[in-house]
Each structure stands twice: as structure tokens, then as C-alpha cells.
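Whiteboard transcription, Tuesday session. T.W. wrote the C-alpha cells on the left side:
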């Protein structure tokens, strides 16, 4: 499964919202040293009820717009 997300680092709180076919992920982690990406993976794992290793950032590792691949197992 492939999903598009938009990430908002340094938010006031961690949350995931679905708006217009795009998941918006708000994380308190900064976009430094891959911390925001790690937080996105952790939050998505909980939200989608999958393991963190099943989530892969395919595009946009250094961008707010990301393409995420969920590996079905």
C-alpha cells in the first residue's frame, strides 16, 4: 500500500489527521538528524496497527511531502 503524507515538524502535539485524501502528520520532533522521519514512522505504525519495520519512506525523506510504502506481511 502506498500513501501520501504531509509532515508538520515541531508541532505543539503529535497527531494524525486525514484531510482530502492526504494524511497530515503533526509531530513535536524537529526536522533535524532524521528525528521527524523516525517520529512519522512510529506514529504511522501505531495509527495503522503495523510494525515499524513495515513502513518505508519511498520519496521525500528531506521534504514535508512524503510517499510512504506499507509492506503487507
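and on the right, the sequence the group agreed on:
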Amino acid at each position: 500500500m502506498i500513501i501520501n503524507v504531509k509532515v508538520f515538524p515541531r508541532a505543539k502535539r503529535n497527531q494524525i489527521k486525514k484531510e482530502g485524501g492526504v494524511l497530515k502528520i503533526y509531530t513535536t520532533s524537529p526536522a533535524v538528524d532524521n528525528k521527524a522521519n523516525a517520529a512519522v514512522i512510529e506514529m504511522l505504525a501505531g495509527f495503522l496497527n503495523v510494525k515499524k519495520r513495515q513502513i518505508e519512506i519511498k520519496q521525500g525523506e528531506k521534504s514535508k511531502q512524503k510517499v510512504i510504502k506499507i509492506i503487507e506481511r
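Someone added at the bottom: The CA atoms of residues 21 and 48 lie 15 Å apart.
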